[in-house]
Amino acid sequence: MSQPVSSVVVCMAMEQEAAPLIERLGLQPQPPFAAPAPFVTHAGEYKGLQITVVTSGKDAATGVNNIGTAPAALGAYLALERLKPDLLLNAGTCGGFKAEGGAIGSVYVVSEFRNHDRRISIPGFAEYGVDARAARPAPALAAALGAATGAVSSGNSLDICPEDLAALQASHACCKDMEASGIAWAASFFPQTPLVAIKVVTDIVDGDKPSHEEFLENLATAAQSLQKTVPAALDFIAGKPLDAVFG
After folding, report:
1. Contact at 8 Å (CB) between 195 and 135?
2. Residue 86 among the catalytic residues
3. Beta bridge partners of 93
4. pTM beyond cutoff 0.90
5. Of 58, 134, 152, 213, whose CA is between 20 and 30 Å from 188?
6. CA distance linking residue 21 with residue 26, whole number of Å
7. Closest by alpha carbon to 41, among 31, 73, 197?
8. According to the model, what pLDDT value does residue 202 have?
9. What is the sign, positive or negative, of the torsion defined by CA atoms of 124, 110, 77, 15?
10. Which structural domain range is residue 122 located in?
11. 246 assigned to some structural domain
12. 117 catalytically annotated
């Protein structure tokens, strides 16, 4: 693509993650783009880029945020199909690992997407379960953000069992989340639209505190970090063709 990037869709799971960013960019609520699916969109212009932030909305039965790989994959697929952006950006929080050098507030540009909780002990299906997918390298973006790079591994539980921990340690994942692998799977059907994922650490998986307590303690702080990090990424992207974004 020789023309500068003109449109970016930012997929985020939770409204608490997205709210500071939406306020910072001055984005406005939009009509549902995928009714009856619950996805919520805010849109506006930032430095010549048309920005649309898509969050997963709320579960009708419980009223809580839709989280996990299934809502994330569906939201990304519908956004790519219907909004047709030049670039898809997944921005969100994650667990980090002190064994991999992570700390609360660490920022990562994802280098690989994989799963750690899809254990399928049937010949030929083990690799399918992990579904490791290399991200398109973006070293210049990582450098501009002062971010590290590393793999993100996704699962559908906030806590961690010994089998999950063993898989995470074996893969040397730097980030543990509940959405990125689903988004990467959906994005694979739209190869003309690159995917970038940026993660901010809210809790230390191999630390001393229970993940849910540390996550809740640090969610607001991580959301504020995303409020700074995502605009910085957009500043880098604005005015550049895709080849330069990933150069």
Report:
1. yes
2. no
3. 200
4. yes
5. 58
6. 8
7. 31
8. 86
9. positive
10. 7-237
11. no
12. no
Distances in whole angstroms, Cα of residue 246 to Cα of each of 59, 142, 169, 202: 36, 10, 28, 27
Over residues 177-219, the pLDDT tens digits come to: 999 999 999 999 999 999 999 999 988 888 777 667 777 777 7
Is the separation of the CB atoms in 210 and 236 below 8 Å?
no
CATH number for the domain harbouring residue 106: 3.40.50.1580
Q: Is residue 21 part of a domain?
A: yes
Give the whole-angstrom CA distance, residue 158 versus residue 142: 27
CA-CA distance, 199 to 202, in Å (whole number)? 9
Residue 243 lies in a domain: no
* Active-site annotation holder among 86, 164, 203, 214: 203
Entry field: residues in the chain: 247
Cα–Cα distances in angstroms (integers) from residue 81 to residues 9, 32, 42, 47, in the given order: 11, 14, 17, 24
Residue 182: inside a domain: yes
Which residue among 17, 86, 179, 214 is the active-site one?
Answer: 17
